């Protein structure tokens, strides 16, 4: 059994590095390229596993080289991968990522491939695993009916649920009552609330709107500005860790993995946020996504 169950996608990140992002219609020379593990669910699972949590990753890959890369990665990071389905019909998902090496910002296209094909029946094969986890963590990179089904299953069994609403897509109102922690970044928070977040007071306004929608605890991640937390009673604002960011791809994933770890260890919300903030920050000092997640020893 696992302390943390993560449902989501794996994609092979094909990352291009350059001094700037190309403008529409423009071709520029890059300064580097790498293929590495990505996908929000998979990255979040790795982040939690590197902190020495017992983690299972529930997802689907293709029967191909990138699928093998995923399984190898899970073995290397001591993650339960018996829960990864291998599709014969669909290829492993891929992402095309462009990273601006000057400031670490990025632009991404994801083709989810096999990961989008995971079904409710397949999730049900691991219902005991979800029910017996302390924390269930998921995102919006697979079919929303599958996500909703799994969130319901977790919540009905008193498992702490985290929905990282990424990428931001429309979800039924029914979702909200099954979410304990909702962790949008600024863009995603704007999508769900229509409030542009440029200040702490706007982050607060957005969090209040989300709480009114039925979410219990809201954490808006603010990139290099840190985070804002609100549960309707307590508000917490933390500045980001001071680091020299070289690639912010996967920072939100690192953050969510760190949060899941803290919650699974029954830490206070203050401790969970401190840790998640640190894990998010530390992930930006290395290139890549899944492989840039810090280990427990890197945090001290
Ligand atoms: P996403 O990757 O989903 O867009 P954010 O950019 O908001 O999410 O980053 C998530 C978290 O990672 C932040 O709340 C912060 O803790 C950390 N983080 C992100 N960028 C930086 C940065 N440049 N310096 C320090 N910490 C960062």
Descriptive account of the structure:
The chain has 300 residues and is of the alpha/beta class. Helix content is 32%, strand content 24%. The chain contains 9 helices and 13 strands. The strands form 2 sheets. It has a 9-stranded mixed sheet, with helices on both faces. α1 (40-50) crosses α8, α6 crosses α7 (200-212) and α8 (251-264) packs antiparallel against α9 (269-283). It is globular, with a radius of gyration of 18 Å. The two termini are 28 Å apart. Bound molecules: adenosine-5'-diphosphate. Adenosine-5'-diphosphate binds next to α8 and α9.
What would the average pLDDT be, to the nearest integer? Answer: 95
- Elements, N to C (H/E): EEEHEHEEEHHEHEEHHEEEHH
Helix count, DSSP H or I runs of 4 or more residues: 9
β-strand amount = 15-25%
What profile does the largest beta sheet have?
A: 9 strands, mixed
Give me the oligomer status.
single chain
Shape from CA axes?
globular
Task: Give the radius of gyration.
Answer: 18 Å
Bound molecules: adenosine-5'-diphosphate
The residue fraction in helices comes out at 25-40%
Strand order of the largest sheet: 5-4-1-8-9-10-11-12-13
The end-to-end span amounts to 28 Å
Number of strand segments: 13
The structure class reads alpha/beta
Uncertain stretches: none
């Amino acid at each position: 059994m696992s302390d943390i169950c993560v449902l989501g996608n794996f994609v092979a990140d094909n990352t291009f590095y350059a001094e700037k992002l190309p403008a529409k219609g423009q071709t520029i020379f890059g300064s580097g390229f790498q293929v590495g593990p990505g996908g929000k669910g998979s990255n979040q699972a790795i982040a939690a596993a590197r902190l020495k949590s017992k983690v299972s990753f529930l997802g689907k890959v293709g029967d191909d080289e990138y699928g093998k890369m995923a399984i190898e990665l899970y073995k290397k990071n001591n993650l339960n991968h018996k829960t990864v389905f291998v599709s014969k019909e669909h290829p492993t998902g891929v992402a095309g990522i462009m990273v601006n090496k000057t400031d670490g910002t990025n632009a991404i296209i994801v083709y989810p491939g096999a990961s989008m094909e995971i079904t409710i029946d397949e999730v049900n094969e691991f219902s005991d695993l979800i029910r017996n986890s302390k924390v269930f963590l998921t995102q919006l990179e697979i079919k929303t009916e599958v996500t909703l089904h799994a969130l319901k299953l977790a919540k009905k069994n008193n498992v702490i649920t985290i929905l990282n609403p990424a990428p931001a897509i429309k979800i039924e109102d029914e979702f909200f009552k099954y979410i304990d922690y909702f962790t949008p970044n600024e863009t995603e928070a704007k999508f769900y609330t229509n409030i542009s977040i440029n200040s702490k007071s706007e982050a607060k306004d957005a969090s209040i709107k989300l709480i009114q929608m039925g979410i219990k605890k809201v954490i808006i991640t603010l990139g290099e500005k840190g985070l804002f937390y609100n549960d309707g009673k307590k508000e917490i604002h933390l500045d980001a860790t001071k680091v020299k960011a070289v690639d912010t791809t996967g920072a939100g994933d690192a953050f969510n993995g760190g949060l899941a770890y803290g919650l699974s260890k029954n830490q206070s919300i203050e401790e969970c946020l401190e840790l998640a903030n640190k894990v998010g920050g530390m992930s930006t000092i290395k290139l890549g996504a899944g492989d840039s997640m810090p280990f427990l020893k890197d945090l001290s």
